[in-house]
Amino acid sequence: MKHRLPALLSGILFGFGLAFSGMTDTHKVIGFLDVFGAWDYDLAFVMGGALLVSVVAFQLMKHRQVSLLDCPLEMPSNKQIDWRLIGGSALFGIGWGLFGYCPGPALTALIYLDPLTMLFVLSMILGILVHRYSKI
To answer: Model-level pTM?
Structure first.
């Protein structure tokens, strides 16, 4: 219970950051992916900033057993590149390239009530459920 408020505030901040940076605008994201056409490089700065924050945070936390809020930290232990990793990465990239959303921005963009965004999120949830309940 004590960790819900920081999680809620982090999620709200994340959503505002996505909206402010343009990550919830599918046209902007697809423009970023169009490197051989009318390339929109703005999101490279967003990703660079996110990567910088992530690298610093991982370096600070990699030897800790608990988070700053005293929750257990679990770092991935699998270092193997297998067909599941490649297939999942490919599906992620195809979905991102076709529609211009990845999971975080798609959930954030639900506030716009766009039917295509809702279809994307429903498809994403269906994919998650198929993976969870299949032996893949």
So the answer is: 0.72
